[in-house]
Amino acid sequence: MKFLIIPLFFSLFVSMTVNKEKKAINWLTFEEAVELNKKDPKPLLIDISTTWCGWCKRMQKDTYSNSNVIKVINEHFYAVELDGEHKEDIIFNGHTFKFVKNGRRGYHELASSLMNGKLSYPTTVFLNEKVQMLQAIPGYQSKTDFHPIVTYLSDTNIYTNIDWQTYKDSVYKSPF
User: Fold this and answer.
1) Which of 6, 100, 114, 143 has its CB 3.0 to 4.6 Å from that of 66, i.e. a possible disulfide?
2) Residue 31 burial (CB count, 10 A)
3) Model-level pTM?
4) Mind listing the pLDDT tens digit for each residue in 38-62?
C-alpha cells in the first residue's frame, strides 16, 4: 500500500506543477526581453509597478492571472516586470538608466522614461518589435478591459490597419 501512495502523490505533485506553469505569464527582466527580441523579434509588454502599490498587486491577482490574458501575452509578447523603484542600473541603447533617490523612495530612470515622466503605478507599456514606444497605459486594468488592448497591440497587421475604436466595436471577440 505504501508503494502505491508515493507514486500517486508524486504524480499529483507533477500534475499540479505542470498546470501551474501553464497558468502564469513568462515574466522576464528588461535585459532578457531585449536580448530575446534580438534573436526572435516580438513586441514587449512592460508592467511597471512597485512593491507597495495596492492596485499593482490587484492587477497581478485579477488581470495577469487570467488564462485568456496569459495566453495572448505568452504567445505574442516578451513580458517584463519592471519595478519603478528598481535599484540596479539598466543599460539600453547605449544609455545607462539609474535609480534616482527622491524623497523617501525614488524612481528608476527607465521606468520614468517609459512613463514619460509621469510616475503612476501600475502602468503598462507596450513597445513594438523594434523596441519603440507603442503605448503607455497608466492605471489598473481589469481583465475585461485589458484583454482587448493586448489582443489589439499583439499584431502589427491589426493596429497599423484598423483604428482602436473600430477594432473594439467591430472586430474584437471577447472570451468573457
Assistant:
1) 143
2) 13
3) 0.86
4) 999 999 999 999 999 999 999 999 9
